[in-house]
Amino acid sequence: MLTLHVTADAAVLVDGERVKALGPYEELAAAHPDVRVRRWPGILTPGLLNPYGPEILEHTYHPDPREADTYGTVPIGGARAREIFRADPSRLGASARRGVQRLFAHGTVALAGQLRVAPVLEVVQRSGLVFGARPEGLPGPVSLSPRPMVLLPGLVVGGPARFAVFDVEDRADLVRRGASTCVATVIGGRLVYRGR
Predict the structure, then answer these.
(1) Cis bond before residue 148 (omega within 30° of 0)
(2) What is the pTM of this model?
(3) What is the DSSP string of 29-97?
């Protein structure tokens, strides 16, 4: 099924896992009158690379909402995360799935860093996230919204339908306000995160 993702200044026509066309909304909609249209506020980007893959998915525990009384709701790192994983190694896979959802909610479509834990690697491979090169000298503390942000190369016709939409005025506003402004993330043509 064809889907047309539209913002005020961009339109991407997706066919399955690929970008079928890029251009003005009016032209794409006229050429494909039966297309499903998804309108988004803000800007459409190729998505972000998060350089902290292992730190976020292997060294951080992402609590299940049902564990809020015990662990709270925010990610847990450091010695406490190691203690949780040591006590029950089976938590790694489920934690990684929740971590991937948090990454999607921040417009992440690619990770950097070498994942070494099999259940985590399996979760990432199934999610559709791709791997990119880790920048030399990581920018700062581990974050779902790292600074500086690393945007991927632009979308191309025939290329993978992998992108994110942020509810901001422009890229400078995205840098100022951060990746938590994400309203949609698409990987492999699938809407994997929708904020609104």
Answers:
(1) yes
(2) 0.94
(3) HHH-TT-EEEE-SSEEES-EEES-HHHHHTS-B---GGGHHHH-SS-B-HHHHHHHHHH-TTHHHHHHH
The residue written with tokens 């489920």 in the block is 94
DSSP 8-state symbol, 106: T
Q: Could you give phi then psi for residue 21, rounded to 5 degrees?
A: -160, 155
pLDDT in tens, 139-190: 778 899 988 888 899 999 999 999 999 999 999 999 999 999 999 999 999 9
- What is the C-alpha to C-alpha distance for residues 111 and 128, in angstroms, rounded to an integer? 11
- Which phi-psi region, left, alpha or beta, contains residue 92 (left: φ > 0; alpha: ψ -120 to 50)? alpha
- Using alpha carbons, select from 146, 77, 90 the residue that is nearest to residue 118: 90
**Tens-place pLDDT, residues 26-79:** 999 999 999 999 999 999 999 999 999 999 999 999 999 999 999 999 999 999
Question: Which amino acid is present at 184?
Answer: A
